[in-house]
Amino acid sequence: MTSGFYVDPDSSAARFVRRHPGATEIKTRIADQAGARWFGGTSGDVKQAVTAYTTAADKLDKLPVLVAGNIPGRDCGGRWSGGAESPSAYRTWISQFSDGIGARPAIVVIEPDALARLDCLPRKDRPARIALLKYAANQFATKNPNTWAYLDAGTATTLETKEMARRLRLVDIGKVRGFALNVSNYYTTEESEARGTAIKAALGGAGEFVIDTSRNGNGSNGSWCNPTGRKLGAPTQVGAAPDQAAFTAGTPADLLLWLTTPGTSDGLCGPTPTIPLGTFSPVLATHLITGT
């Protein structure tokens, strides 16, 4: 058992605050909040990196949240470029990711956008992606007894509900805890709850779901790239899934999670057209704190 969620001491927001100790609002509202750490092709030795991260959380009796993002082709040249060089390289990578967790408690979100953007791949390449996602799900199911893993299922408006449920079945959703919604996006918790409940029903009741609430306080205005007028959402917390009846967060979701560090740029756009993807911006952070 763990006591609360792990706060990443080396998140982009935490690093900014260390350099700017006067940024008290960013420290309190963002850097001191529990969120996810992403692991991908730039994480170096992924087993070593994941081991270090989950061990640090375990020593504090806290639950770490991790995102695995390294599948070949990522999202077909969209905002998240890169990925493993080949299917065999990915299988090695995700296996080592799983090995790094071991028996320590963890939450893992598997490959944001990989299912949602399946259609952008040539038709001949789609079965390989499905096979890799199945392989990833199986790694966590068989090697990590204290990990809740969630396959990404896009946003509240990604595909038709039945089609997303069909894709989740293809990647063996039944082997993991469930699916994730709204990763790095802005749709409201209520919109995501409705979508999650509908997908779960289409799956015959199988699969719990988590929602990224990091930047969804004001919902989506239709833009995904540093839109203004957005706001911080509910902090990371346990939801009210059936086997967690003691918790009353007022949501049917398993968990509400900050899967994105608020203030991290979505790319060269919006009020920060010179801030690259993945770079922390105090301007973006302040917009999210104030909702402007």
UniProtKB/TrEMBL annotation:
Any Pfam family hit: Glyco_hydro_6
Active site: D113, D266
EC number assigned by the record: 3.2.1.-
Record keywords, A-Z: Carbohydrate metabolism, Cellulose degradation, Disulfide bond, Glycosidase, Hydrolase, Polysaccharide degradation, Signal
GO BP terms: cellulose catabolic process
Binding site for substrate: W38, N185, W224
PROSITE patterns: GLYCOSYL_HYDROL_F6_2 (PS00656)
Record-linked InterPro entries: Beta_cellobiohydrolase (IPR016288), Beta_cellobiohydrolase_sf (IPR036434), Glyco_hydro_6_CS (IPR001524)
Any one GO MF annotation of this record: hydrolase activity, hydrolyzing O-glycosyl compounds
Family: Belongs to the glycosyl hydrolase family 6.
Protein name: Glucanase
